[in-house]
Specification:
mainly alpha, two-stranded antiparallel ribbon, 69% helix
């Protein structure tokens, strides 16, 4: 005689890679069972679910297997070994809503357990019937459960094979555009944040759904579980081509970013800075939308001076990237607004990458001065750096333990 006990564990914080969730609620449902019993239970339940002549017993066995897949990987593995994934993928094609609803939960739980089961489901064709269910669903609960399961198949590290999940993007885009359910929005936005993480082709497939405006709209959502993945997805899109970046800017994202730049949660400020750094690394026209707004630029300067070390570093990157593609007149505006003094202060930072990126930015500024801003045969920017003793700090960095910092310090003076 084997007893199975279930208990609830409330979810806290932001669900990045949702592992498993119980039936009909927003809790993780976990199974309490001895690993030694799991193989016996899995085999017996699979035998029962194949007995179509006993439909009531069959359905109860399917329910039990659904709970079973909320257990640990060790407990689930015997079910996998006996062909459980293929069985439940086939069950997604059932004409009986009660059966395919159970199959949705199993696929979601297995996909959320880790990359191994997720990739098996995708390889065995589990995505197509799930998409069909979500696309045709009339019941809100089916959309909610289906989006959650779909999200688990598109998320996690390492990323799933994009060729196996690309068909999910239009469905997720429609869900994000049309739904108002917080759980649905959370799952859809996290999935898109993973699906947009990559090259321009991946990014364009997300843009083509028309979801960018919805992502920007959801930046007003107070729930971190929605706000952060929307910021992440927009940040991913901003890493793309000039036209892809413009899609985000034209949707009105910039005012929303600066609305959140002083958000109480550090994770939000970090995502905002990362997104802005992708804008300032773009074309001069894109850069101008930030540095041409005095309020925006001063918020960045303030963030560099007053926030915690992590956010200061991210904000410094935003400003340093401005020197890469900026026109001479833009570099001049940056210097007139105090970035040389700011860089001088941060050359004492302990973080090697921060020091290195500042040295690269200073090289860009000095080069610009050599070409465009000479006063009496002297580089105006370099003269100012000498005045504030920045050149002395750079010379000291020639003895830095980091080879990268050492090499960068040699090319400045």
């Amino acid at each position: 005689y084997i007893s199975i006990f279930f208990f609830f564990q409330a979810e806290d914080g932001i669900r990045d890679f949702c592992l498993s969730r119980g039936l009909g609620d927003v809790y993780k449902r976990q199974i309490q069972i001895n690993d030694s019993d799991s193989k016996i239970i899995a085999v017996r339940l699979l035998e029962i679910v194949k007995r179509e002549n006993l439909p009531d017993l069959q359905f109860k066995a399917i329910q039990a297997l659904t709970h079973f897949t909320s257990g640990t990987t060790q407990q689930i593995q015997p079910l996998i070994d006996k062909g459980g994934i293929t069985f439940f993928i086939n069950l997604l094609n059932s004409q009986c809503p009660e059966l395919f609803e159970q199959a949705i939960w199993v696929i979601g739980n297995l996909g959320g357990d880790g990359a191994q089961y997720r990739d098996m489901i995708l390889k065995y064709g589990g995505l197509d019937p799930l998409l069909k269910i979500v696309d045709s669903a009339q019941k809100q609960t089916t959309i909610k459960h289906g989006t959650w399961a779909l999200s688990n198949l598109c998320r996690g590290r390492p990323l799933p094979d994009f060729r196996l999940v690309v068909k999910a993007i239009p469905t997720l885009g429609r869900v994000l555009i049309n739904s108002e359910d917080p759980e649905v929005l959370t799952d859809a936005s996290w999935a898109l944040s993973y699906l947009s993480d990559g090259d321009e082709a991946r990014i364009q497939s997300v843009i083509d759904t028309g979801v960018v405006s919805a992502l920007v709209r959801h930046l007003d959502n107070p729930l971190l579980s929605i706000l952060i993945p929307c910021l992440r997805t927009l940040g991913n899109i901003l890493t793309g081509s000039e036209s892809q970046t413009n899609t985000v800017l034209e949707a009105g994202a910039l005012p929303k970013f600066f609305q959140h730049i002083n958000h109480e949660r550090r994770a939000v400020r970090r995502e905002v800075c990362w997104s802005l750094s992708n804008v300032t690394a773009g074309t001069p026209e894109q850069l101008q939308q930030i540095i041409g707004n005095q309020e925006y630029f001063q918020k960045l300067i303030t963030l560099c001076k007053t926030d915690c070390t992590e956010i200061k570093r991210e904000a410094i990157w935003v400003i340093c990237n401005s020197t890469n593609q900026g026109k001479p007149e833009q570099i001049l505006i940056l210097c007139q607004n105090g970035i040389l003094e700011l860089f001088n202060e941060f050359l004492d930072a302990d973080d090697v990458k921060t020091v290195a990126v500042i040295l690269e930015a200073l090289f860009n500024i000095i080069s610009c001065g050599n070409d465009h801003y000479q006063e009496n045969g002297e580089n105006a920017f370099l003269a100012h750096l000498e005045k504030i003793n920045c050149t002395q700090k750079i010379e000291k960095l020639q003895h830095h333990k980091s080879e990268e910092v050492y090499n960068l310090s040699l090319i400045h003076i």
